[in-house]
Amino acid sequence: MRKFAGILLFTTLVFSPCFAIELTSPNGHIQLMFEISDIDGTTKCPNYSIFVNKNELVAPSGLGFELADGTDLTQDFELVSVNTSTHDETWRPVYGERELIRNHYNQMTVKIARNTEPQTIMDLTFRCFNSGTAFCYTIHNVGTSNDVNIKEERTEFRFLKDHTAWTTDEAQDPYRKTTISRVGKNAERPLTIQADSTGYAAIAEAKLVDYARMKLAVSDNDSLCLLSTLGSHVNAALPLTTPWRVIMVADSPGQLLEQNDIILNLNDPCAIEDVSWIKPGKVIRETTLTTDGGLACVDFAVKHNLQYVEFDAGWYGFEHVDSSDATTITVDAKRSAGPLDLHHIIHYAASKNIGIILYVNRRALERQLDEILPLYQKWGVSGVKYGFVQVGSQEWTSWLHMAIRKAAAHRLMVDVHDEYRPTGYSRTFPNFMTQEGIRGDEEKQTNDLGLTTLFTRLLAGAGDNTICYYNSRVDTYATHAYQLAKTVCFYSPWQFLYWYDRPPSSRDNKSEALPSNVIGDEPELEFFDAVPTVWDETRVLAAEIGKYAVIARRSDKEWFVGAMSSGPERIFTCNLDFLNNDETYLASIYSDDMNAATRTHVKIERFLVNHKTMLKMNVLENGGCAVYITPAKPGLEGDYPLYE
Predict the structure, then answer these.
(1) Which of 36, 259, 293, 399 is deepest in the core (most CB within 10 A)?
(2) H or E segment and range at residue 618
(3) Is 595 exposed, middle or buried (CB count within 10 Å of its CB: 0-12, 13-18, 19+)?
């Protein structure tokens, strides 16, 4: 055997009889078994099963396809050969939830053949990571045809018990806690499952680029079997390699989130040579669509350490008609009377090192993409928010990823809305900053939903949650300290803050009380000012799906901790042993206090802490707590007490 480029290669094994072949994770805790056998009346069916610590998580589950012409590619296969290898590398993302990512797996590629008409040769590539398993298909030939038309992918995920699952049918719908047998026919991925003896699992998809989106459906023949369902037929030239089907495995929901880089690892490395123009940051949405409003947002961004101002729907006309022209600045009169001198704002923002993001609805994108991208680059725009994109089918999946690549060619970053869910393409094209596909604050998110979203949707990648602060829904569903904590817990390289709010203007200052949607000078806003959007390290300190989460993230030498809770008042004890042993830190603690004399009722306490500190966070009903921990400057010992 020879080792090079991080890959250890083994010889190819050739088999004539069919028997089970085992692939294990590098740490030996996960075993994947492949064999060709009979299942439910299907003869010579390629299938796999998964064991975690010798406990069966996924029972023998069929693999294959049904073609549009009726060809059944789920049976009558013979094993041709098996090739095994291992891969171990560490790579540095352009940005992310951690500074370094280890990509360590054992791989098995199984070549199988079908000798009945039409003769078919297909590879099944399996990978076992310490954090789960993944597999994809490569169809080499079907008869003498040069292409293939797939009607259905027949991938199965069979379970032995009716485990608890958290599911939603649409990307922006609420989640519901249910069981596998009640998941339905249209379950989104990732689908998180709590298994009795094997901890937690999540069925996900990776490297979906030019194929139809996968969802999951309960089988009509077995209520404990989930079937892949595609958003459309797939028409492709041969050979065709599918996206990866992923089964994440962890001891706890927090570990699922800590290990979610399995999705990125299954995607191709960065394809952009110069990434210096790709910059994460915090964003404020400009809501007035006026020149004065835009300039006020730029000034606010400078003052409060935000990096971008986004102009949402309406700046080029009514977004939902084809007559609106995204090459013009024509304010939708129903949204604003204007005037809007967008070019002046872009120029002014650039002088302050603030970027401008423009929203464009799919109607204009689909008609004008090749016209607006070079135009926006010429204007000096930093990025584009693709709105209401079409998703699901192979056609629109391919179109969207093409549109991201075209944006990269014009040095434009992208935020995708609405139903799109990530599968790791931001590794390959990191100008793809974030995406919606999430029921965020825009949709009146309750705390239990947010705390379910953390361990379902956010396993797939960044979520544009459109965090608000002064809007009345914060008081209805949560607290302001909860909103502060959300910026730590909900990962998004472009983090939208103050979604329904706007900076104060001169006319606001004439009144004694600010309007409810105007950002004030509450002292806890310093946390929003300080918190970054990307991280060098992520730790989930405590979590229960739908109930609570305590997450600590590091940026350089600073730590940020977010505690979010749904339901009754709770006390969390946070062990700060992740701090450097020989250093003293200043911890600023932001918690809810109904006696605090501000409209947001957040109090701030500051203490000196170290790696031995056990920090107690008192969290009110449906509340939260945020903590900012920074190395203490010399001489602070007399200014702040040591936390006890």
Answers:
(1) 36
(2) strand 614-619
(3) exposed
Distance CA 579, CA 629 (A): 9
105 burial level (CB within 10 Å; 0-12, 13-18, 19+) = buried
Q: What amino acid is encoded at 356 in this protein? A: I
Neighbours of 322 (CB within 10 A): 9
Cβ 26 vs Cβ 106: under 8 Å: yes
Task: Please choose, from the candidates 611, 608, 612, the residue with its C-alpha nearest in 3D space to the C-alpha of residue 639.
Answer: 608
Task: Kindly state the tokens that stand for 357.
Answer: 């993001």
pLDDT digits (tens, 9 = 90+) for 359-385: 999 999 999 999 999 999 999 999 999
Do 51 and 33 meet the contact criterion of CB atoms below 8 Å apart?
yes
Q: Are 372 and 360 in contact (CB under 8 A)?
A: yes
Structure tokens, 74? 């789920």
Measure the CA–CA gap between 545 and 260, rounded to whole angstroms: 16
Strand 570-575 relative to strand 614-619: parallel, antiparallel, unpaired? antiparallel
d(CA 310, CA 332): 16
φ, ψ of residue 206 in degrees (nearest 5): -135, 150
Contacting residues for 538 by C-beta, under 8 A, at least 6 apart: 97, 98, 257, 258, 491, 551, 552, 553, 554
pLDDT band at 39 (very low <50, low <70, confident <90, very high): confident
424-457: pLDDT as tens digits: 999 999 999 999 999 999 998 899 999 999 999 9
Chain-centre distance for alpha carbon 265: 14
Residue 496 CA to its chain's centroid (Å): 15
Q: What confidence tens digit (pLDDT) does each residue in 487-525 have?
A: 999 999 999 999 999 998 755 555 567 788 899 999 999
Cα 273-488-567 angle, rounded to 5 deg: 145
Cβ–Cβ under 8 Å, residues 49 and 59: yes
Quickly tell me which residue has 């909860």 as its tokens.
482
CB < 8 Å & 24+ apart, contacts of 502-509: 502/286, 502/287, 502/288, 502/293, 502/296, 502/297, 503/284, 503/296, 503/297, 503/299, 503/300, 504/296, 505/292, 505/293, 505/296
User: Kind and range of the H or E element at 591?
Assistant: strand 585-592
Q: C-alpha angle 556/557/563, rounded to 5°? A: 95
The whole-angstrom separation of Cα 122 and Cα 51 is 25
